[in-house]
Amino acid sequence: MTENELLLEISNMMDVKIGTLHQSVRDEMKEIKGDLQSEMSGMKADIRALKMQNENDIIPHLQNIESCYVDTSKRFYMELGQMEDLKQDVDVLKKVVAEHSERLQKIS
Prior knowledge:
By secondary structure, this protein is an all-alpha fold. It is about 95% helix and about 0% strand.
């Protein structure tokens, strides 16, 4: 065998090996792609279910809770002035009761 023939034979052997390796890598990539597509379709279904749960269950509950808190805070804010008035009235009553107690002690 001449040197050129030997090199040509080595080149052909390398082509066969590389071709086999290339096909093997392609087959593995197709398998991985199929697995990933399967997993992604499962994840898409899970995401859809979570979105539906958010829309139908969680968001309405949160909106209800929010409206309760907003209504309550508005009511407290509106009644804050009345609380201040009541506090002043109680302070006046304390002073009057204290004065009356002193007068009653002096009388008796």
